[in-house]
Write a structure and sequence with these properties.
Elements (H helix, E strand, L loop, with lengths): L4 H10 L13 E5 L2 E4 H18 L9 H25 L6 H13 L12 H15 L3 H21 L9 H15 L11 H18 L2 E10 L6 H18 L5 H8 L3 H4 L4 E6 L5 H7 L11 E3 L2 E11 L6 H30 L3 E3 L6
Antiparallel strand pairs: 1-2, 1-7, 3-4, 3-6, 5-6
Helix pairs in contact: 1-3, 1-13, 2-3, 3-6, 4-6, 7-8, 7-13
Length: about 375
């Protein structure tokens, strides 16, 4: 992988894995020191990584070989997790009952709300949790054993890897800040001494700071969707409805109420059409052009995009900010410390791989 090996290695240790699949005879994706990895394990790993990439790096999927990278990353992740788990077991790392209960409790919390965010009572949350176990064909005892092994790996990493990782010094942190500043100015060519992977990591961090410091708008919107292949009559009807709504907003109609009752963007409609803060590049070009010309408190005329007709309301506008070293020093130190941790983890896993018997039965043959 070009961009995310370190991200994936660290992420694999931060969250407890989902329940193991049912104990059925099925084709193997790999075997690591005689430990089988099933096709269903592999499919779940691919799906989880795709979700992580979509959330953290949406542009990743614009690459032609994105699917191949996901497949390789999923196999690597499964191999690395197995090797770490086997090492933790060989060292007989102890997980205490209270630690196990805390770990199980963290997973249970994920089932305390419905997909749309509504709070469930204790009984319904527990039923949702148990239902997921049944869906996966896993008993509570098997689930607890999976969490115990995850916690063993976390302790192995805590005791072994974190002691190797180093905190950056002031000179290293300042040099990293200077490189980010060059990226924000569009002067990437002036950056020296970084390999391709380190450069992509830097660009990713700089992108986050660009979002933080860029001019931003707090928007609400009402969306009247147009279905794909809408007829001219349907398009006209949607436009006329948007124009009528816009006229009512000039009268006594409250924007929050209008969004709740009329917007086809159901997620934002539940919150009065609130889109949160946006920066340039996040909206369709035709919508963005209108949004950045609005005055605070102003409602736009209906504007058409490929999604339908939008009516926008500007709640707040924040001017672009200058990136200052003192304000971001601690954040950069954390980024560099995480990079050091990921590098040490990668080296440790590389050592484990040297003495391991790894058989891959799908994808890239090894």
């Amino acid at each position: 992988m070009k961009t995310t090996n370190k991200f994936l290695l660290a992420a694999a240790l931060c969250a407890c894995a989902g329940p193991a699949g049912a104990k059925v005879v099925e084709e193997l994706a790999a075997r690591i020191n005689n430990e089988p990895v099933t096709i269903s394990d592999y499919q779940r790993a691919k799906e989880a990584l795709a979700e992580q990439y979509a959330a953290a790096m949406p542009d990743f999927f614009k690459q032609k070989d994105a699917d191949a990278q996901i497949e390789k990353a999923a196999l690597d992740k499964l191999v690395d997790e197995a090797l770490l788990r086997q090492k933790a077991e060989s060292l007989k790392i102890k997980v205490y009952e209270r630690e196990l209960e805390t770990g199980v409790g963290e997973i249970r919390k994920r089932f305390s709300r419905t997909p749309d965010g509504a709070q469930l009572d204790t009984e319904k949350a527990e039923e949702a949790f148990r239902g997921e176990l049944r869906k996966e064909g896993v008993t509570m005892e098997e689930f607890r054993e999976r969490i115990r092994k995850q916690l063993m790996v976390q302790k192995l990493v805590q005791d072994t890897i974190k002691t190797r990782a180093k905190m950056p010094g002031d000179a290293e942190t300042k040099a990293y800040f200077d490189n980010i500043s060059l990226v924000l100015k569009g002067e990437e060519a002036a950056i020296k001494g970084l390999d391709a992977e380190a450069m992509q990591d830097l660009l990713g961090v700089a992108g986050k700071f660009k979002e933080i410091t860029a001019e931003r708008l707090h928007l609400r919107h009402i969306l009247l969707k147009l279905k794909e292949g809408a007829t001219p009559e349907e398009k006209k009807a949607a436009q006329e409805k948007a124009l009528a709504l816009r006229k009512d907003l000039d009268g006594s109609l409250d924007f929050d109420e209008a969004a709740d009752k009329n917007s086809d963007d159901q997620e934002s409609a539940r919150h009065g059409g609130d889109l949160g803060y946006v920066v340039k590049g996040m909206l369709p070009p035709e919508v963005e052009a209108v949004a950045f010309k609005l005055q605070v408190g102003e409602n736009s005329q209906p504007v058409e995009s490929k999604f339908g007709w939008h009516i926008l309301r500007l709640e707040e506008k924040r001017a672009p900010q200058k990136l200052r070293y003192d304000a971001v020093k601690e954040d950069l130190e954390q980024v560099l410390a995480q990079n050091s941790f990921a590098a040490e983890l990668g080296s440790y896993i590389k050592e484990l791989r040297k003495n391991a018997k790894i058989q891959i039965f799908i994808g890239e043959k090894k």
